[in-house]
Design brief:
single chain, about 270 residues, alpha+beta, 6-stranded antiparallel beta sheet, globular
Length: about 270
């Protein structure tokens, strides 16, 4: 156990680690002088009730894959949007279950990972890497990433919002959209590696606003399909509405390039 204290007085914030979680770390330090934890090579997030509904699921079990590390154990096997349901024969009830189970699994072990992809369950064999090596790889990839030149603006792109059925989207999903032009990139400091459709404004009090969407975020995917313009956004949202779905699943990228999935209710 540990407690936060400055100058001898406690702030009333305590921490505790279960002994069965600490013991493997102690054993690794004894044997190797360092930690050696398993690594799957994916970024994940929680499955909220709204996200589950947008995927047609009756429960929020699993861990949703946000991104797959290039060169990692899951590269070319798992994909963004996969819902991990079980790992090495153990069910993943909540997102935070997966990192703990993976970290305690021996490095180099070939494990079976069951995912939901496109509404169908699939199983893959993945050989685990080492988390400490993965952290070095990610740092190297970040350092080597060369920014791509942003696409040049065009008159057609600039006018697409007004001529598209997406012009009235704010009434359905609570936000407006526009083309991701060089001017928009400059205004919102959006990385040149980010591509998709720009969120230009969010309606106060809407579900989109409550979920944290703001102007300057970029929509990369809708219901696990990439979008490049306002018409594609409108078509996918319209299709979900006609199919009776209560929400749409958006893959959002913030100006720094951080990605996450957000389900927005349809009005």
């Amino acid at each position: 156990t540990a407690i936060v204290a400055h100058g001898g007085s406690s702030l009333g914030i305590g921490f505790a680690v279960p002994s069965n979680l600490a013991q493997p770390v102690v054993n690794q330090l004894r044997q190797y002088g360092e930690t050696r934890r398993g690594w799957l090579g994916v970024g994940i997030q929680d499955v909220t009730d709204d996200i589950a509904a947008s995927m047609g699921r009756s429960d929020n079990h699993g861990a949703l894959v946000v991104e797959v590390t290039k060169g990692g154990p899951s590269d070319g096997i798992l994909a963004d949007g996969d819902l991990i349901l079980s790992f090495d024969g153990r069910a993943i009830d909540q997102m935070h279950d997966l990192p703990r189970i993976v970290a305690s699994t021996p490095i180099g072990k070939s494990v079976k990972v069951t995912v939901l992809r496109g509404g169908q369950q699939e199983q893959f064999d993945i050989r685990l890497g080492r988390l400490e090596d993965g952290e070095k790889l990610i740092a190297k990839l970040d350092a080597e990433a060369a920014p791509a030149a942003p696409p040049a603006d065009s008159e057609n792109d600039a006018a697409s919002l007004e001529t598209s059925p997406a012009h009235s989207l704010s009434k359905i999903v609570g936000f407006g959209i526009g083309p991701l032009t060089a001017k928009a990139r400059s205004e919102f400091a959006i990385a040149s590696s980010v591509n998709g459709v720009l969120i230009t404004d969010v309606v106060n009090g809407s579900d989109a606003a409550e979920k944290g969407l703001i102007a300057g975020y970029v929509i990369e995917e809708i219901n696990q399909k990439r979008v490049a313009n306002a018409t594609e956004v409108a078509d996918l949202i319209g299709g979900a509405r006609e199919a009776g779905r209560p929400a749409v699943l958006l893959k959002i990228v913030d100006p720094t390039g951080t990605k996450r999935f957000i389900a927005v209710k349809l009005d």
